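ok here's DUF8149 domain-containing protein, seq below lol
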Amino acid sequence: MTDDTDDPEIPIVCEACGTETTVGLSAVADQLERHNENRHDGEECAEVDPALKSQIQDLVAKDIGLLE
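and the structure came out like this:
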């Protein structure tokens, strides 16, 4: 079993609600789905913080050689 203290914290935001929260990486998908289902009838409004998402995309692109 994973120790919760080892689970990196990921910021998620919902511009439609004006809310922001931070959850453990292992709970991100469930939290996003739950929020969107309960507050927005399943519409994907809440998401991982766009700035973090952009950084991850850049790291992946660099790692697989797309930026060379």
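fwiw Residues 7-63 form one domain. kinda neat tbh
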